[in-house]
Amino acid sequence: MNYDMEDTQNSAPGSLPSNQAAKLGGPRRGNDAQSTTKRLQTELMQLMTSPAPGVSAFPNSDGGLLSWTATIEGPEDTPYSGLTFKLSFAFPPNYPYAPPTVLFKTPIYHPNVDFSGRICLDILKDKWTAAYNIQTVLLSLQSLLGEPNNASPLNGEAAELWDKNPEEFKKKVLSRHRVVDDE
Amino acid sequence: MLKSRQGPLVGEKKSSRAITEEYAKADPIYVAKTAALPQKFSHYRPILGDGNCGWRAAGFSYFETLLRLQNGARLEEELARMTSLNNLLTTVGGFEEWLFEDMVAETTNLLRDLTDLVQSSPQAAEELLRHRFNTHEVSDSIVYHLRLLASSWLKGNPASYQGFIPDGLGVDGYRKDWIEPVNQEIDHLGMTLLIDILLKPIGFAVEIVYLDRSEGSQANSHIFQQEDSNGVPTNPNGPTIHLLYRPSHYDILYKEQVPMQIMDQLARNPQVNRALTRQISVHETPVSMGGYSQLDMTTLLCIPGFGLSSPPQHHGFHSPQYQQQPIEQAFNSSPISASISPISPGASSTTTSSGALPGTFPAQPPSQSSLTSPTIAAPHSAFPPPATQLPIHTNFPPQARPSLVSNPSITSHLPHTSELSSPSSATSSFRPSKYEWEAAADWQEPVVFQTSTFKNSHYNTAHYNNPNFQPEEWTPESEEPPAPRKRSS
Lengths: 183, 489
Fold this sequence. Notes:
The complex is a heterodimer of chains A (183) and B (489).
Chain A: H1 2-10, H2 18-25, H3 27-30, H4 33-49, E1 55-59, E2 67-73, E3 84-90, E4 101-104, H5 134-146, H6 156-164, H7 166-176
Antiparallel strand pairs in A: 1-2, 2-3, 3-4
Chain B: E1 14-15, H1 17-22, H2 28-40, E2 43-45, H3 53-68, H4 72-84, H5 86-92, H6 97-118, H7 122-133, H8 136-156, H9 158-161, H10 170-179, H11 188-199, E3 205-210, E4 220-224, E5 240-246, E6 249-254, H12 260-268, H13 270-289, H14 320-330, H15 335-340, H16 348-355, H17 374-381, H18 390-394, H19 402-405, H20 408-411, H21 414-418, H22 434-444, H23 452-455, H24 483-488
Parallel strand pairs in B: 3-5
Antiparallel strand pairs in B: 1-2, 2-6, 3-4, 5-6
């Protein structure tokens, strides 16, 4: 860094030395997705080195790391026990400063998921924090399966059946579930 | 959020008159408050209202203030501190290092790059700072680092803040709902937490100016700064960051440029400032003494509070200018020359006070004693003529007081002074004397000084709030009695 100082002193007043100009507008600063990519690489490492039971995720083969496919196993003692669900993650270029878009790819009957697989979960919207990550999202979704938020359902019928008719609910879950092909 | 979502994250510094114009057609309270704003703050820097403005404004100001200190070592200290705070994030905050290391890296990289530039090219350093804070990826990382720090600090110090957490959320609920969500505006508790972890520990104060519809012709403001257990600021001369708060939005305010290097020196070592002032006194003495500079006035400067710029200036007895006047009287100088001769650069207040001595100079026409302040006249009326001995007494340090107190005409107004408590707390280690406090307190009221010259001068009683303030000691044994006393006796 001593060279920096010399450059500065030798340059004409008011003009930025080239190395400082590089700092100001260098390629690393120009690309928003760069730090996102790095973060997602780190997340992948974490998922592989310390996996959580019942959840997994991996980037799609199309490269770019901005789209992933994840799986959740239905928790024991819930209507979803024994079922596996696939989800898609789409990361915005400013991830983790904006939440990923998460959808159920496997059809699921659940009070907080609509028939397109869209999820109503506050941590994927206004309560998203940059300290969350793919694994914490998957674990949150897994617990959502056993503890739906029936106060704000996307599927009103499911919310009602969850409370009033667990057997009917379980039937609906099983009839809706089907295995989707890997992409 | 009320402010525009367009434009740069951190805007260019503008004249704060722009705010006045913006509110020209608003509610009369806003008109009055924004009209008064530019008198105190010359410039402001708009921050994008994207839900992070308060965090970003405070964060940017943190770096900008560090830059203005022009002190590479200070930046390096911050680099070390920020790195060591990772421990807080993991052990107290409960965040995993791999999650925040990239964010912290943006903070530490910026500190490192600024350290490299600050000495050689301050201008490039400022540009770099603005550029980084306007690059989303970097700016958002730094802002999020600040959120993590505030969140961890709350987790580690729940007792101090619990009472301020709304709606029975609890510490963890508050962290999840108010601090950690990426676009959640900072609330008052969040700002307090951020100041407490980021700015107070390094002696930076934050003044928040609240521009709202509350009554008044000026915006209210509150200063957050490190205080000791008695509420006395521990670093009263530290740099201050000014933020403008409008409901749910923060911008940065600036006073006119202050030489921050001096402020920093002051903050670290108040003695420096006093040494400077004393040099000035020595320098000015010959000027004001005119042809009588053969008198050795410099010994007087060793007496605490004795000098051009000591707080109880309006006593008028202790300044070199005053000494000149009896001499001129002795030489039958006209009263007019007596009033003109004391004028020396920067001594106008002394001139006024030396004219305010009717008891001492009966020859002067009434108009000469152009008293404007009753606080000046009152004490003097109690002094019996001839008063020429009083200057010496009034400027003696406390241990020399008994001779003064023994004078019955003076004890008559002692009860009045004893009611006064010192402006600083009772535990303050420095108390020059009650009489001087009275003088300083009275004298302060009508005059509002805001210049940096004042802040750094002896007039500024804020120095007394500094627990590290150490007055120069006067040791009678090692000094000749002051010259004027000999002369007048």
